[in-house]
Design goal:
Chain lengths: 331, 331
DNA sequence: CTGAAAGCGCTAACAA
DNA sequence: TTGTTAGCGCTTTCAG
């Protein structure tokens, strides 16, 4: 049978209150009793039950993390950072992959709510934002990660507009004038497209609307779309793929059509995942400071949980351009 | 304030017992009362508290998953499958990345124990197996995933010996006679080395012990070791890297030394992660049936949790060779 | 078919 | 400094 606080109390010859106090280091307990209690705890291999503690009104020290797919390298990296930051604060995280599927989204939100998580981290790719209203009503802390949203929810994200601008400016400065963009059909994707537009507008370079695509992130979609691009005769000299996976797909698709990278086609990605370091040549991409974002996310969420929070706060981190080998000057 | 079973009972004009019964569909409750209760639950937006339920002796419906690092593509894929299988069974999973660090291992085991997880899934790369003894004593279900272990713990894994044999045989059949192997310093790594040996022995081909390396999985280590291999004059014609990440490192390192892949050096990996499809040429590798493994793992674990389990059970899945472009016949 | 009451393991007043 | 006691929200006998 599991050993409880009662067992420890009996063993140490004190009351459960005393044991509770030494565990939580509350109130005043003499060193002697403390020692006694600790010894008994050790002997009985006692581990306090979180669930009992949680029921007493305290926190579960668990947070729910909703991502589209943990197996996607970008989210995998994000989950890892979040996990570390959470552990640093004595919390653990339950990860749920939603696959951009609103049914799963509501299912998991409900699940996590039932589990009484102390807070939610909702990452980019969450489609049914209305689902969160209920949580807000219930006063459950939420923070959006890498997903800007219209409501009054706390958010930590990268400046997607800036990222799109950065990538596009890089390409434009290399002389490219016919640049296709393949974006994800999520809000941050739209912002990147606006950045793409802004970079063009700034230089008064016209945009061919046929060069703008929205799709879901996958190798296949990257491949498919780049082929379509050439088959339709758009013949871009550069492609800005809004994430690394798509970028790799673009590279592969282009190569299958006999294009050389970057000689015949420059490609730039987004996220700077492990994939970017693995392609040959290395993928030029826009990097998000995932570690900083995770830190800020947890920090803010914890503040909310502790109730120290007031007003909506949204932090924007600046992306940076990482130039590797898949982009070159147009000659 | 959170709405409780009491609120629902009051609203529906029944006792909490009745509400509890309709929630769990236990006992006999008239359709009429059921309807009433459901309506009240809906109105009040009632969500039963898992923690209260758990305290009553039931399960937490949460399992702990220990992996070395979620951001590693192989584990990321694994976590994803486990997560899906768990959700299918109404459970959620808390992921902990141990970094092969035994301090973290014990910290997380303790953490999860405190959280009263219903069971543990311990994946390959768990170093301090003794830590699990305590759990076994406490009767907490554990299952080892992709990590064979000496004790009497349930396990689901791939036949690493066979995998090593498969990879090596492939290389030998291509005429290679000077094959280096870079393995991880974990048990499954050793088994792969035995497979490597067996393939050689079968053909009575001698092994140069200097060609056997053990390291941690990282791009850098792959790079570093392949360079060392050539600097030391081992000059292998093929390298069997015991996971894809190392393999990619090997490819990159070799290229930096001017070797062409596969003309000058054949490289084979293990795991068949997303990385294998991204290198150019595609990485020849050994594939593990992760989906099947995850399914079997959860199935077995759930059986243990339900107490339907008897005796130790270990399932071995067969790996398969996936030939892509990084291996070629020795000419 | 429905309800009253006793816990599950722990924390938090309030006493002593 | 230490102990008594009343819950936290739910399940589960055991009575009606």
């Amino acid at each position: 049978m599991k050993t409880t606080i009662y067992d420890v109390a009996r063993e140490a010859g004190v009351s459960i209150t005393t044991v509770s106090k030494v565990i939580n280091n509350t109130g005043k307990i003499s060193e002697k009793t403390k020692k006694k209690v600790f010894k008994s705890m050790e002997q009985l291999n006692y581990v306090p039950s979180q669930v009992a503690t949680a029921l007493t009104g305290k926190k579960t020290d668990t947070i729910g993390l909703l991502v589209p797919d943990v197996s996607n390298p970008f989210y995998a990296a994000m989950v890892r950072q979040i996990e570390d930051e959470a552990h640093l604060r004595g919390m653990s995280v339950i990860v749920c992959s939603t696959d951009y599927d609103s049914e799963k989204e509501s299912k998991y939100v409900e699940l996590l709510k039932r589990k009484q998580v102390d807070g939610f981290i909702v990452s980019s790719g969450f489609s049914k934002v209305e689902l969160l209203d209920q949580l807000i009503e219930d006063g459950i802390p939420i923070i959006m990660l890498a997903q800007d949203n219209p409501d009054k929810i706390n958010a930590v994200s990268v400046d997607d507009f800036k990222g799109g601008y950065l990538a596009t400016s890089h390409l434009l400065s290399y002389g490219h004038r016919n640049i296709a963009i393949i974006s994800e059909q999520v809000m941050s994707g739209d912002l990147r497209i606006y950045g793409y537009r802004a970079a063009h507008d700034e230089r008064k370079i016209p945009i061919n609307e046929e060069n703008i695509f929205k799709t879901r992130a996958s190798l296949e979609n990257g491949k498919r779309l780049v082929k379509k691009l050439f088959e339709k005769g758009n013949n871009p000299t550069a492609v800005f793929a809004c994430n690394d996976l798509l970028a790799v797909g673009v590279i592969q698709g282009a190569r299958e059509m006999g294009k050389r990278i970057p000689e015949d086609l420059s490609v730039i990605g987004f996220d700077d995942t492990i994939l970017a370091t693995i392609t040959v040549p290395g993928l030029t991409t826009v990097s998000q400071p995932i570690g900083d974002m995770a830190r800020k996310t947890l920090e803010t969420l914890v503040r909310q949980i502790k109730g120290e929070y007031e007003g909506v706060e949204r932090t924007l981190f600046m992306p940076t351009l990482v130039v590797r080998g898949t982009t070159s000057r147009l000659t």
